[in-house]
Design brief:
Layout: E1 2-7, E2 9-13, E3 18-22, H1 26-33, E4 36-41, H2 49-55, E5 60-63, H3 81-96, E6 101-104, H4 106-114, E7 120-121, E8 126-134, E9 145-149, E10 152-153, E11 163-169, E12 174-179, E13 184-187, H5 199-208
Parallel strand pairs: 1-4, 1-5, 5-6, 6-13
Antiparallel strand pairs: 2-3, 7-10, 8-9, 8-11, 11-12, 12-13
Length: 210
């Protein structure tokens, strides 16, 4: 089977004085449904990003959710600068290796930020659902009702020029994009949190990760 490198959120465990890399177990279920072996990636120093991608023989990379990007809100309690640095380097390394990259929620935000875009703070977008306007070319892979767990979004005019929106919410915020020339894409909703996992998300992610 192909190998899907999945980045991990950082959780601070104060009682033990630890910063832990961790991953929702539902990502493993989803990876196998996509015909991949899940490979959790540690938040190591940026100079090792290309080494780990090569040595682990990754076939694709998925940037998962969690942790506020430090550059957006340095004072947020859930920032993880080490994760930011590693994921930026991983994007560059995977791009150089022509590996497909998919960002989910925070991962989508990281891609847009790293490629020169920006984001705006949002209210009322956590633990809710909303409808989308979907590009007709993706209408068989993206449903117009998705979950939402983000405090930051890509407002109109904030998507970097290299990316093309393929789904937006009713306020015009980008909910999914693809790169105009590279195998880089992002979605703002969490496919792993839909139980059962939706066939449309499987179809979309298989397309984006191939």
């Amino acid at each position: 089977m192909r190998r899907l490198g999945i980045t991990q959120r950082v959780e601070v465990i104060h009682d033990y004085g630890e910063r832990r890399d961790c991953l929702d177990q539902r990502w493993s279920e989803l990876a196998f449904r996509l015909d991949f072996i899940p490979v959790p990636l540690p938040n190591i120093t940026p100079d090792l990003a290309s080494v780990i991608a090569l040595d682990l023989q990754l076939d694709a990379v998925l940037l998962s959710g969690g942790n506020t990007i430090s550059a957006l809100d340095p004072d947020a309690p859930n920032t993880a600068p080490e994760r930011d640095r590693f994921e930026y380097a991983l994007i560059d390394a995977a791009t150089d290796m022509s590996l497909p990259i998919v960002g989910v929620c925070r991962g989508m935000q990281v891609i847009n930020k790293h490629l020169g875009g920006n984001l705006s703070r949002l209210d009322g977008h956590v633990s809710c659902r909303h409808t989308l306007q979907v590009d007709p070319a993706f209408s068989d892979m993206i449903v117009n009702d998705v979950n939402s767990y983000h405090n930051w979004g890509i407002a109109p005019g904030q998507l970097t020029e290299a990316l093309c929106p393929i789904a937006v919410d009713n306020e015009g915020y980008t909910e999914a994009f693809t790169h105009k020339s590279k195998k880089i894409s992002g979605i703002m909703w969490h496919p792993e949190r839909e139980q059962p996992i939706r066939p449309t998300d499987i179809k979309l992610l298989k397309s984006l990760l191939t």
